[in-house]
Design brief:
alpha+beta; Multidrug-efflux Transporter Regulator, Chain: A, Domain 2; Multidrug-efflux Transporter 1 Regulator Bmrr, Chain A; 9-stranded antiparallel beta sheet; 2 domains
């Protein structure tokens, strides 16, 4: 039995326009086309495919992936794979949304005065470190994150190959350029630093006055802590005056975890005329 395009669209609970689109992209072509009128006709055997397309589109599966499924030699196993992939995508999306909700809640609590960032102003002693650096296209975890991991591995390998110890805490700092951000990772050097291949010896200068804030937990929300620090610095009549640093006081391994403790450090100078 054949159906007109309108009848077939009604069976699948889709629009005629959508059926024409599926035809145009080769996903679901009519069983036949009447020569004189050009009317599309669909076979009852095509209904399972239409119902599957509708189901998967409702679940957010892309048309390209559905087309792959329609061509699969083992459709049931291919469907299982598509559903597993979509489940993983949705789980990741839910986790991201949950993290955003938590950030919104914390922001609302700050606006209501329920929580206040504990900013401390103090001097920072100079320190000698073993460091490597790389370039990120900009700030933010989406730009810096992909650079950090390879830098840490590179520094670890270079220091171990040179027989140098990995003395914590690790110190990261960031130097802005015109169109990029230079990212440094480092470990504390011994009292008598040793030159070696694959790393450099850097003298981090002391800072007369820095705004500091302790960030608890992994680095997914560290941008929020940096924003809190900078907002408070401005409110207190200071300006940021030099590269910022992250000092990983407690960091078990290289995978950020809930037990990590990071001190954010920003050199500051009081704005003239403000008290």
């Amino acid at each position: 039995m054949n159906y007109s395009i309108g009848e077939f669209a009604a069976l699948g609970r889709v629009s005629v326009r959508m059926l024409r689109h599926y035809d145009a992209i080769g996903l679901l072509v009519p069983a036949s086309i009447v020569a004189r009128s050009g009317y599309r006709r669909y076979a009852i055997e095509q209904l399972p495919l239409l119902l599957r397309i509708v189901e998967l589109r409702d679940l957010g599966v892309g048309l390209g992936r559905i087309a792959d499924l329609a061509r699969a030699d083992e459709p049931d196993e291919a469907l299982r794979e598509v559903l597993r992939e979509r489940r993983a995508e949705l789980e990741a999306s839910v986790a991201e949304d949950r993290a955003r909700l938590e950030r919104i809640e914390r922001r609302l609590r700050r606006l209501n005065g329920e929580i206040m960032p504990r900013i401390a102003y103090r001097s920072i002693e100079p320190v000698t470190v073993y460091a490597v650096h790389g370039r990120a296209p900009g700030g933010g975890p989406e730009n810096v994150g992909p650079v950090i991991g390879p830098l840490i591995d590179r520094l670890d390998d270079a220091l171990l190959a040179a027989g140098r110890p990995l003395i914590e805490p690790g110190i990261f700092w960031y130097e802005p350029g015109d169109d990029h951000l230079t990212v440094y990772t480092s470990y504390i050097a011994e009292p008598e630093p040793a030159v070696g291949e694959g790393y450099e010896i850097v003298e981090l200068p002391g800072v007369a006055e820095a705004a500091t804030l302790i960030h608890l937990g992994d680095t997914t929300s560290i941008g929020e802590s940096w924003a809190s620090l900078m907002e408070q610095v401005l409110a207190d009549g200071y300006r940021i005056d030099g590269p910022t640093r992250e000092v990983y006081l407690v960091a078990d391994g290289h995978e950020p975890g809930p037990d990590w403790v990071t001190e954010l450090q920003a050199p500051v100078t009081r704005v003239t005329g403000r008290v």
